[in-house]
Amino acid sequence: MNRTRIYVFLGNSNQLVDMMATMDGMQLFAKGEYLVISADMMTYSPKLSNKYLWRVEKPPNVKNCMDLPGDFERRSKSLLVVVASEPLPTFEAFTHKVREYTQKEPFFFKQPSLFHQFVKYVSIYAAYLYDSVKLYAWALDKLLKEEQQHRPLTSDVIRDVASNGTKIIQTIINNRTYHSVAGATIKIDDYGDSEGNFSVLALKREFYEEANFSCEFQMRPVAHFQMRQPQHLNDTNQHRNDEIPVSES
Predict the structure, then answer these.
(1) pTM greater than 0.85 (yes/no)
(2) Of 241, 106, 125, nearest in space to 181 by CA
């Protein structure tokens, strides 16, 4: 702490809350000289964003976030969280389809009658899997159409094209951009690394209430980022937009 002022935190939300409380107990946030940046692998959800501020198991006598040990507002203002941006509203239609199809063959994942009032949670990883299969199918279709211009598509030819993983992956990379079913525009670089849309969360004054607990603050998006197009691609693909970070007040 004598040489480090900005900490990048990787871990679960409970560990983050504990670390922030420890730093607060050591008075590291007293003068605003320290900052914690937490990177979360999950997608931003307004309903779950408070997990970065306090544990679910709060002391029984705590009715307001200001009653939590230490200086809640001061330490919370010293936290930034980087998460994948929230899916667009159209993502709901996709999750509905996932619930519908997982109840059918071969999954038979039925909704328990005891919990009929609850909706099954669909992870964002379902969208990632869907995107992967769709990208593979698109690349294979493109390669087969190109191959058909030179020779008939016999079973052996189709098998050769479909089993050439290197060529399929390179075709996906060359396409550079695809639209995820979650609504994000995803870009792929020369090495096949993809980067979608990310949001930065910070403390905002917004009332929150649950059972016998309330708070005047919540973690909300203050900036959104997208991958910058490499310069050599901008020179050869003038029709593509070079997207840069967009900040919100």
Answers:
(1) no
(2) 125
